[in-house]
Amino acid sequence: MTPLRRTRSTAFLFAAAVSSILVAWAAAGRASSPAPKATERRFTLFYTAEAHGTLEPCGCTSDPLGDVARYASVVRAARKEGDVLLVDAGGLSYPEGGSSPRERAGNDLRARFLATELGKLGLRAVGLADTDLAAGAAALQPPRLAVNLAPGGGLAPAPSRLETVGQVRVGVLGVVDPAVVEAAGAKAEEPVAAARREADRLRKAGAEVVVALAPVDRSVARRLAREAAVDFVVLGRQVGTGAPRADAVGRAFILVPGEELTQIGRVDVVLRGGGPLADAGGPEAIELRKGEVSRELARLDEELASWAKSGGAGADAAFVAAKKAERDALAGERAKLGAAPWAPPAAGSYFTNRLVPLSRAIPRDPAIASAMRALDARIGKVNLANAAPPAPAEAGRPFYVGMDKCASCHKPAAAFWRTTVHAHAWKTLVDGGKQADYKCVGCHVTGYGAIGGTSLGHTQHLENIQCEQCHGPGSEHVAGKGLEDPPAIQRNTPSPVCTNCHNEHHSDTFNYNAYLRDILGPGHGATTRTAMGDGPTGHSLRSAALAKAKVAGKATLKKL
User: Fold this and answer.
1) Which of 260, 360, 357 is CA-nearest to residue 53?
2) What is the greatest pairwise CA distance in the chain?
3) 3, 270, 441, 454 — which has fewest CB within 10 A?
4) Does 381 reside within a domain?
């Protein structure tokens, strides 16, 4: 996270450092690409989908991917090499699953921020998906491309785009799933037929490259690619982590970015006269194939070794011979892949496609990062103004009493707790400006959402992950001075209590026993800690993952 305040001199130095890195990226891109020929025309297409109003990822994982400010840095670095075009295939504005009433105002602010800042960055065309209509048609921004949308019904689609990018005439059209707009009271015709007509119209108007934005089922997107005169179809539904390769369907190619800006797509197009575009792979595609071949070779070697060890018992000789031939062919392919660096085709128009993971290694654009920090403060102010207190404690039901009550009797345990990361959970939110963000607060306080516990804006004396988050509300334990029978708290914490927050979305290295080693010690489960013995700790697992992410991030930077 960027600091909340920065002196002018610090801001200048930071901006200068980012600028120097971006210049280095541009230089690296020029060095790794062949010099353009006089007859070549080039442009870069950046494509995204299903951002779902996500401006940045949860920063608690070892390698969080995403962030609008990092996307901006990548785009601005690419502009130093040549002209770019930004498109989004839909699902830009709002989260999946809708918004709770308490989160609606914050989500509206994030949606408007995305529309504004990406528009400034150069976003020229956006598709229409079901989540984009979460706040109603009147709130929809920016305007969406949906050539099959019928007039009326409260939805007014933007016209298809015909842009000149790098001396190339690029047409962009969009389609919408009829079921999506019917739910909003509008009508739409079958998308493929409408896309065919519009692609033909764009071609007649001079489009040399046509891009279709398709927030529809994959089967519909494939049919569109096959039947319409388009070059690229950007999928905008159920994209997941994205697809590193362009999927050839007929003369067109389907492109799939990662959701929530985790992996943005980049296509570099080179036109050399007429003729269809060829997928030229690129350095990343070669590395991808090398990895696939190596894994398959390892699998075949293991199988062949197993058959050799058994003397061939139970294995058909012809089958084993075929596997050996397959293994030899793969070994030959790997040798060929490593023999020479990637080079573009000698003739004809072509493109290269890759996914760019937006990791922490990529510098954040300082202007957008600053605007995001201001947005956090604005959202926090709105959230706090509307924050409801937690359900009050009920008679006969235990409630949360806070760390000070625990420490009055368990001083050694409290002293050890203060050395753990749980004791600093709240500070990480404050440092990041997220202490009033509904997406974050629940995993940094004790008793969130529980009766007699905490809620956003009502966390006093229960900030951080205190004793009661693991052992349960302690009012009856305190009242009984620890002598109540049966015990009113749980001494041993089962893993499901941990995985409410320590899951793949927020704590990707979590292992119950390893993390337990970090929070047991003198005064707090020392006997259990000794019995567990040596082994990996949460700290060691996370440190290893952070080191791995750092290496991967450096590799990403080299490719940009």
Assistant:
1) 260
2) 87
3) 3
4) no
Residue range(s) defining the domain that contains residue 302:
286-337
Indicate if 296 and 414 belong to the same structural domain: no
Collapsing DSSP states into helix, strand and coil, what is residue 255? strand
Same domain, residue pair 222 and 302: no
* Residue 341 neighbours by CB under 8 Å, 6+ apart: 283
> What CATH number does the domain containing 265 carry?
3.60.21.10
Question: What amino acid occupies position 386?
Answer: N
Q: Looking at residue 339, what is its pLDDT?
A: 81
DSSP string, 114-180: HHHHHHHHTEEEEB--GGGGTT-GGG--S--B-TTBPS-TT--PBPPEEEEETTEEEEEEE---HHH
- Supply the pLDDT for residue 307: 82
Q: Which residue in 237, 257, 231 sits closest to 245, CA to CA?
A: 257
- Does some domain include residue 215? yes
**pLDDT at residue 275 in the model:** 81
Say if 1 falls within a structural domain: no
Q: How high is the pLDDT of residue 379?
A: 97
Per-residue model confidence (pLDDT) at position 13: 35
Domain shared by 291 and 357, yes or no = no
Assess whether 145 and 263 both reside in one domain: yes
Q: Are residues 277 and 291 in the same domain?
A: no
Whole-angstrom distance, CA of residue 514 vs CA of residue 34: 49
Side-chain-side CA neighbours of 242 within 13 Å: the count stands at 30
Neighbour-count burial for 472-482, b at 16+ CB within 10 Å, e otherwise? bbbbbbbeeee
The three-class DSSP label of residue 69 is helix
Q: Does residue 210 sit in the same domain as residue 304?
A: no
| Residues 301, 303, 309: CA angle, nearest 5 degrees | 100
Of 278, 155, 172, 158, nearest to 228 by C-alpha is: 172
pLDDT of 38: 56
Q: Which residues contact 21 (CB under 8 A, 6 or more apart)?
A: 363, 557
Q: What is the model's pTM?
A: 0.87
Number of structural domains the chain divides into: 3
Residues 6+ apart with CB under 8 A from 18: 73, 363, 364, 365, 366
Do 299 and 206 belong together in one domain? no
Low-confidence ranges of the chain (pLDDT < 70): 1-38, 312-315
410 and 294 part of one domain: no
Give Cβ neighbours of residue 191 (< 8 Å, ≥ 6 apart). 148, 175, 176, 177, 178, 214, 216, 220, 224
